[in-house]
Amino acid sequence: MATVRVQKADFDPGAEAEALASGRTDVGAVVSFVGYCRDEGGGIAALELEHYPGMAEDEIARAAGEAEARWPLLGATIIHRYGRIVPGERIVFVAVAAEHRGAAFAAAEMLMDYLKTRAPFWKRAIRSDGVVEGWIESKRQDDLSAARWSAAD
Amino acid sequence: MKALYFAWVRERVGKAEEELDPPAAVATVGDLIAWLSERGEGYARAFDKPGVVRAALDRVHARSDASITGVKEVAFFPPMTGG
User: Contact, A68 vs A97, CB < 8 A?
Assistant: First the structure.
């Protein structure tokens, strides 16, 4: 059963990843991913992340359930922040534990692809000159990345 | 039913949520979008590009042909950009 948290506060990726293996003897691999806010060459002062409370947690849990049905996982933790996030800060965390690394790598990648296209979050950029830019548009590449998990085997 | 709007859909509609009581002929998500689009300029702008705005019924993604019968909460929002 995956741990899913949608929160304003930052998180400790090292502690979160370690917690998946701590006190266990069956875990052979933990793969973790951290997504950061970047400044796009100095042009972005902050991101504002809006989300759909309730559905965001549900949709991430559904994605985790699909990953658990597909690979023999021993645990997963997914954290997604919302609110104002400045360049250099963490936005999202995915960690997956399994007996072997193949399942852990694949499940972590699938979860990130699903998060980007199915979890109800929306970003907008605040420029360094203080201007609020429009909402960031979704990327076709993200849709393609997510689609390969349903198209493949 | 309760309607929720997010991101630029919320900004165009001009509110984050409201109660909707559509007539019985409004049976699907697509019908609801067409019905809402008639309610004013903000709604019309929010839904002006067919197929762009996404919908969820009771917090589950839904296509435009999905039935809204018995649904308690409908949400409209742009394509997602999380992660």
Answer: no
